Amino acid sequence: MAEKKRVKNREIMGVVYTxxxxxxGLIGYLVYYNFSVKENVVNNTYNxxxxxxxxxxxxxxxxxxDGTVLARTVVGADGTEEREYPFGNIFxxxxxxxxxxxxxxxxxxxxxxxxxxxxxxxxxxxxxSGDKNNGDSVVTTLDVDLQKAAYxxxxxxxxxxxxxxxxxxxxxxxxxxxxxxPNTIELTWDTITTTDEFDSVLVNRATQGLYPxxxxxxxxxxxxxxxxxxxxxxxxxxxxxxxxxxxxEGISLKCFNGRAHGSLDLEDAFAESCNCAFATIGLHLxxxxxxxxxxxxxxxxxxxLDFEYNQSSFVQTMASGIEETMHTAMGQGQTLMxxxxxxxxxxxxxxxxxxxxxxxxxxxxxxxxxxxxRFGKSDYGRLMTKDEAALLTEYMTAVVTDGTGSALKSxxxxxxxxxxxxxxxxxxxxxxxxxxxxxxxxxxxxxxVIMEGGYSGYANxxxxxxxxLDEYLNR
Length: 475
Prior knowledge:
The protein is of the alpha+beta class. It has 17 helices and 19 strands. Helix 12 crosses helix 14 (322-329). The longest helix has 41 residues, at 2-42.
């Protein structure tokens, strides 16, 4: 009898423990849901709760870092609401729109903008009177003057500009051309949505544009070569005699405009952006390690971003032939990269090899101006050692002082970077790139500029970058 009672007690306790585990699991999931996935679930376009929240709330404003209004809702005397964008085209891609869907920050911050943390007494009064509550406002990291400078500098050239503060990950500006006016998007919608996806003015080229990186990719090739020849700093023994063209096993290529660079060490080859030297380097790299290291540098990977972007792609493998291997090493081939990714690499180099997660939202404030939530800097991780970052900085500084980035020379600050010219068809047209940072001694800004082929008004992207750096560093 006693034995049966003990067995029964064990069975009861088993059921109790099972329910305790399930209960604790449920509590754990609720905590995880509220702190990790709630916003994404609620913000899903298929979630009907979003429609209810939008009907009950006057959409909050989007503000620049200094509080300047970038987007707001104007309520008419008859209660009609209209979304207004005071800067029109200038912030069009990064701020976005709310017509027939959402884009930019209007999409990324949608949940915050339709959530109200207004004074509880006001909310009760609004509930009784049938009035809407005021949504919270989003204060961004964007710098109005820098955004204006980048927009003006890029002009009507197709392409993009993006700048990041290396030590924090704050995105300081983001411009894409061609653009649109979000104030009149309802009137122009049918026109701007008839073009194909890549040509569409709605594409944010800073985050979604995929381009061959050209010679800016030599930063990756250089880093790989340094790593494979780190013993006794063997990379210092590199030498190459550039005749302007080269042929290897029937595959020919040339340096930009066929220029013969003569005798080069590794720093010279990088500063002068010698295609022949880097194609030769590519033939001797460990293909498997090159792919693995580039994936650690965020190719073929999800980027730590909270807004829409496209993944950069690196496709060279052990099976790649000689031609693809040579072209990949100098930034051509099938490699494709977004400007935001290139800027993130420049920012990591500037920050001693550590990448801070780029972010656009600095804090949330309610209708009274009280801070509801802050979004601080966040460490993504180390992409390279401090010594590797220092060596890349040295080589990138030589690009400006003695190489293809001479447009960045300034009496007011020092800059480091890498230029690039990327062929994209069989014509003489090419995209022009610049990625880099300044000042070298204490980096405050990392920048990436791309201008698509057919650009005008500038010799290359370095000149655009110089205008923007001057604005930021000479205030």
